Amino acid sequence: MAKRKRLIPDYSTVTLSGLEYYRTRIEDADGKRVALYARTPEELYDKEMEALEQVGHARFHRKSPTVAEYCEKWLLMQSVHVRQTTLTDYTSKVRRHIIKELGEMRMADVTLDDIQLALVPVSKKSASVYKSVVILYKSIFRAAKESHVIEVNPTLHLNAKGGGIPQEDRQALTDEQVEQLLDAIRDLPPYVFVMIGLYAGLRREEILALQWDSVYLDTDTPYLTVRRAWHTEHNRPVILTELKTKAAERNIPLPTCLAECLREAKETSDSDYVVANRDGGPLSYTQFKRLWQYIVTRTARPRVAKKLVDGKYVKYILYPQLGEKARNNGHCVYSLDFEVTPHQLRHTYITNLIHSSVDPKTVQYLAGHESSKITMDIYAKVKYNQPDQVVKAMDGAFAQWDAMWA
């Protein structure tokens, strides 16, 4: 079959420095007319096609939205089919870790190198935060590619593996540590928060959103119901009635010690919230941090302190001793020889359920786990993390074999 001859336009000619050139004009990316020259029509044709391709590419990039513009559009699209709590989490991470780093760049100009550099600050966060930000990057740029906003997806080879700081597995508090903690903060603001965490297993956002209309103390079996979640926007508290998952909505029976604690708290409360600020409203993020400081300041662990030397504050390391009074607060005694986090209270509750031989399905319900895998992972670590428990399980499994060989 004969090769098809390409059609070469009829170009004008011009003489430059005594030599004849073929000439044509095209419009560049800025809309300006520029001239192209070549010694033959074929050479000029190739040069024209290459230039037009570059102009089209440049115009495409220039029309491409900024990362900030497209991210906001993507968040709006997500609002149609994700829960409000999920959207809040997406919005916070996208604005803090994506828009802040790359917001002014055009989507079509972003490269894998740009994204990896933007992830450097995120790598100083926990591994879970790092992974979720990487997933957001991949979701946003995949959507842009599918919508023909960009020609190439720069996140195709982006990997979350190994990024971020692995979090230590926090151990459940022992009975002695629980008693020590409660003695240290009795009659202090965080006491009710800690009791709910230890004996109802609520998450921090569930405790801070808990209202008295969800606490039933006058029934034969006192209980509370989880139906609200707390989060903050620009340090202001926002209470959501839609929880992150359906499993988070649950009724928790109250052990006697927690029921009595809540009865006493309710008698003196003039707020709708079980844990409230001075005005009776829900706590802001700063107010919660201040609440938790009552526990942190009573922990006998090395910390950075400041002292005035020659009119200037100088930092130094303070080594508190157990039983010693704080230097700047005579009412504060270093009475805890261990550190504790809000989530550790919940983990202690779940661990105690497992040690009490509560079946995994009930543990899953009371913990508000959407996936049974989460419950079973914890169950396996707690239940069989003791050699004597493993031996008993093995003895039972192989008893029939022992009988056969006896």
From TrEMBL:
Keywords: DNA integration, DNA recombination, DNA-binding. The keyword DNA-binding applies. Residues 168-395 form the Tyr recombinase domain. The keyword DNA-binding applies. CDD domains: INT_ICEBs1_C_like. Signal peptide: none annotated. SUPFAM superfamilies: DNA breaking-rejoining enzymes. Residues 65-145 form the Core-binding (CB) domain. Site-specific tyrosine recombinase, which acts by catalyzing the cutting and rejoining of the recombining DNA molecules. PANTHER family: PROPHAGE INTEGRASE, PROPHAGE INTEGRASE INTS-RELATED. Belongs to the 'phage' integrase family. This is Tyrosine-type recombinase/integrase. It comes from Allofournierella massiliensis.
